[in-house]
Specification:
10 strands; alpha+beta; 26% helix
C-alpha cells in the first residue's frame, strides 16, 4: 500500500474518533445549550450522533425512571421522545469540581443556596428552565443539571 493511501485512510478513520472525545456542547453558546432541553430524540441523534452509552437511571419513584443517553461531557435524560434534563460537566460558568464559593460568585444573586445544592431559574424561549448544582460532602461541584421543572 502506498504511503499517501495509508495516510488518507488513517486520517479518515482517526478524525471521527478524535471528534468523539470532545464534549458535545464544546462549541455551543449558553443559549444553544439551553435550547437542547425539549428537543426530540431524533434531533439529538441527528445533531450529535449515537450516544457513547445508554443507561437507565432509577428515580425515587418508579414513574421517575429515566433513559439516559450519555455523550462526552453531557447526559441527556429522556421523557417519551424529548429531552427534559441535561447533566453537564460544565455550563453556565460552572464546572465539576469547583468549590461552592466560586459557584455562588459565578452565578450571582439569582442563585439560591440550599445547602447541598444551588438552584437558579434560567431564562428560556420555550418553557421554564432551572439550573441545579449539586455538591459533594467536601463542598465541590458533583453534578450540574439544566432541566424543565414542569416535568
Amino acid at each position: 500500500m502506498n504511503r499517501a493511501l495509508f495516510l488518507t485512510l488513517l486520517i479518515s478513520f482517526t478524525l471521527p474518533i478524535l471528534a468523539q472525545n470532545q464534549p458535545v456542547y464544546a462549541e455551543l453558546s449558553a443559549d444553544e445549550q439551553l435550547s437542547l432541553v425539549g428537543i426530540l430524540l431524533p434531533d439529538l441523534i441527528e445533531r450529535f450522533g449515537s450516544p457513547r452509552s445508554v443507561i437507565a437511571e432509577r428515580g425515587y419513584e418508579v414513574w421517575q425512571d429515566d433513559v439516559v443517553f450519555q455523550y462526552n461531557g453531557a447526559d441527556f435524560y429522556i421523557y417519551r421522545d424529548r429531552i427534559w434534563q441535561i447533566k453537564f460537566a460544565s455550563t453556565q460558568g460552572v464546572s465539576n469540581g469547583e468549590p461552592k464559593a466560586a459557584v455562588l460568585l459565578a452565578l450571582g444573586n439569582n442563585a439560591e443556596d440550599r445547602g447541598d445544592h444551588i438552584l437558579m431559574p434560567l431564562t428560556s424561549k420555550n418553557w421554564p428552565l432551572m439550573l441545579r448544582v449539586n455538591f459533594s460532602d467536601i463542598g465541590r461541584v458533583a453534578a450540574i443539571f439544566i432541566y424543565r421543572p414542569d416535568f
